[in-house]
Amino acid sequence: MTRKNSMAGKVVLITGGASGIGFATARRFAQEQAIVVIADLDKVETTVAANKLVREGLDVHPMVLDVQREAHWSRVMRQIERRFQRLDAVVNNAGVGRPGAIVNTSLADWRFVTSVNLDGVFLGVKHAIMAMTPNGGGSIVNVSSIIGTVGVQNNAAYAASKGGVRQLSKVAALECAAAGNGIRVNSVLPGYVEMPRKGAKKMSAEMRRALMKATPMGRFATPSEIADAIYYLASADSSYVTGTDLIVDGGFTAR
Questions:
Q1: How far apart are CA 22 and CA 28, in angstroms?
Q2: Whole-prediction pTM value?
Q3: Known catalytic residues?
Q4: CA-to-CA distance for 53 and 24, rounded, in angstroms?
């Protein structure tokens, strides 16, 4: 028996959707007949990314969003309400990193990373709850990281922000369950991912080999593998799952 596609016709907002995990996630949802809004900071990059998926015959719409700014969230939510009259899922994926030892990390860098990675998710959760509640519920998936669970040198701001995302997700899940608003909240914790435009190019060959050796499956994830996990948590296939962390790391944290 084939299960009915639970995301067909649903409206999904994905932050950081112009590249990497966000772009792969946008494609994954759109391929399941969802109406996808990809939101990112750069208007040109966001439009180019959306148009690429539109040329594949997918229903994808670009919107500009600086996740740090609440006024941007309010504007995007108004645009979605006017255009689609509903919102069914939000994937808070946008994130940044500025590696460095604690003693070499400026307060400005610390605040920038935590503002995007944690404040941005807080605002996304807040506005998603307000938008979804009148329509009977939905799903929020927050992208954390395994670095939110294990210590990694020279990544204090990133680790602190991603650990915060995990705990914020749990609190939001409990509040939504208590309110009976039909909204589930979960987090995905990727391990190391092939990101040719970003981290992989900055990583030394030695570091890459060491991380692959430390990963039981012996390789990095593809963005589409993380997208599959996000899709699961947003879809009806996970209808009894809320407040959980889904670790997708090739076994890295199992040791």
A1: 10
A2: 0.94
A3: 158
A4: 10
